[in-house]
């Protein structure tokens, strides 16, 4: 981690602004806690990626949460070709002083230099590809794929450093680990599948229970049972006999593929005052 931080700090000197990517479903859990310290006063835009998979209400709450704290956050689907306009607008807002100062000094430079930073699998390569309108970086479903380094130019004046800063998430807290695993940000084999599925089921029974009823055809009574019983009921409904490990994998896969609808696992209402 120390080396990754050193490298990010070096690259920060080259850019006007940092695009920090977090997963909209888990904006807190997918944030490396040291990022703010590393970025310091560098202008910075928080991009809530995979917003197409997240609970829109929760995302709205997060945007307001950050805005109330003077931080600009926008929700994006990194795969959308139409995101550059939003990002450029927000970037210019962040850099208004710098742009005005350049103009005053007669500097005609309009190029804005930026770098992406975020934990693995949060959508850095996908975002870069869409901003520069071509396939420029390796993308993959598994963490740790981005390796290349080059400057990339978007058609509208953004110059992006294609060595995204990759900082690993901290998951010494079990619930953060479960959230990262459930959404696919870290390899699921770091955790027992049934533990992660039970964690997800716990949130779904509280917030999205209709999704479980619809997808797995379990009953209201099943939802009232202790979570391991519910998992067994789902396992049976999936025709997987007692293979609750396989059923757990299926539940996680369903969630990641959007088959359980749009959901979030981090919520503003759960933030304590100490988290600010
Ligand atoms: N639904 C959805 N999927 C996304 C979005 N952004 C990225 N993905 C998917 O998430 C997976 C990971 O995306 P990458 O762009 O490879 O993520 P990365 O941050 O570059 O990952 P590393 O190279 O591991 O650091 C890919 O399967 C993408 O298609 C998004 O906004 N919405």
Automatic annotation (TrEMBL):
Major site of localization recorded for this protein: cytoplasm
Superkingdom in the source lineage: Bacteria
Keywords assigned by UniProt, alphabetized: Cytoplasm, GTP-binding, Nucleotide-binding
Ligand binding (GTP): 121-126, 165
PANTHER family cross-referenced by the UniProt entry: MITOCHONDRIAL RIBOSOME-ASSOCIATED GTPASE 1 (PTHR45782)
UniProt record similarity statement: Belongs to the TRAFAC class YlqF/YawG GTPase family. MTG1 subfamily.
This protein's name: Ribosome biogenesis GTPase A
Species whose genome carries this gene: Pediococcus argentinicus
């Amino acid at each position: 981690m120390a080396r990754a931080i050193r490298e990010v700090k070096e690259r920060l000197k080259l850019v006007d602004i940092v695009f920090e990517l977090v997963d909209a479903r888990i904006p807190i859990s997918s944030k490396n806690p040291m990022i703010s310290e590393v970025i310091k006063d560098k202008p910075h835009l928080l991009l809530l990626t995979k917003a197409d998979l997240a609970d829109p209400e929760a995302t709205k709450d997060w945007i307001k949460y950050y805005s109330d704290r003077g931080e600009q956050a926008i929700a994006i689907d990194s795969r959308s070709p139409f995101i550059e306009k939003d990002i450029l607008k927000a970037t210019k807002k962040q850099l208004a002083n710098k742009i005005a100062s350049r103009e005053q000094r007669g500097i005609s430079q309009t190029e804005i230099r930026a770098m992406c930073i975020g934990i693995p699998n949060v959508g850095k390569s996908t975002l870069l590809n869409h901003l520069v309108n071509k396939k420029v970086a390796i993308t993959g479903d598994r963490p740790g794929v981005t390796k290349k380094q080059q400057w990339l130019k978007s058609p509208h004046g953004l110059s992006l450093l294609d060595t995204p800063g990759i900082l690993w998430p901290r998951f010494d807290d079990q619930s953060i680990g479960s959230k990262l695993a459930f959404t696919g940000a870290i390899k699921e084999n770091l955790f027992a599948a049934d533990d992660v599925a039970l964690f997800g089921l716990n949130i779904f029974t509280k917030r999205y229970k209709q999704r479980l009823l619809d997808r797995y055809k379990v009953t209201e009574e099943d939802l009232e049972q202790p979570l391991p019983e519910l998992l067994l009921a789902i396992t049976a409904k999936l025709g997987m006999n007692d293979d609750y490990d396989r059923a757990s994998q299926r539940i996680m896969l369903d969630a990641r593929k959007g088959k359980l609808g749009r959901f979030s696992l981090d919520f503003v209402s759960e933030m304590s005052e100490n988290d600010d």
